[in-house]
Amino acid sequence: MAGAIAYEEQRRRQVEENQRKLEELKLRHLSAAVREAATPKPSPAKSVKRKRVPREGGEDTPIRRSGRVASLPEQPKYRFEDVFHVLEKKIRRGRRTTTSTRSDLINRVYATDKAREYATTMADELQAKLGSGYPSFVKPMTQSHVTGGFWLGLPLPFCRKHLPKRDERLTLKDEQGVESETLYLALKNGLSAGWRGFAIQHNLVDGDCLVFELINQTTFKVYIIRQSSYYER
Fold it and tell me: pLDDT under 50 in the chain at which residues?
């Protein structure tokens, strides 16, 4: 029993000694300060005052703070009449293209093999009878020449030997002396702009055969043999 009492007394003295040392080192206050600093505290909301600049009429307007937004150009304001006018033009253009394509498909002529062969034979005979000494070639017409894209490729050997080495305006003269201007593309060896007008003006169709006679450096005389002449014999 006496041993137990002595132990408790010794323990009490040790605790008091420890507390005295803590007081001397001020560890208790330091620990409390650390806990207080580690505890997050809600920061009071800051009230932001927006600067205002006077307008011409005397009213104030807030300054725009975003440099990115402020640097953007002012969006144009379109009137309904302007927008409608642009849309109407696009719609009309689309209708014309659709109508032209539909009409082109409906009015296409597909030559028979016999009619095509007959027109080519007659063109060869005509070329042989020219006797002018001018260079010439025979060109049978296909759908791509007279409808759709209206592109006319010319014989490569003829182009290399007789036609300009750069893009050039060429004149097509029919048998009545009516002239049409076309654009010759040297790199593609063919006729582009202007050929469509010539083909439509002369009602060229699939199976027709043409004889091109180069009567001067930039002028072709064109003879047309109709595939329909096969049925008119």
Answer: 97-102
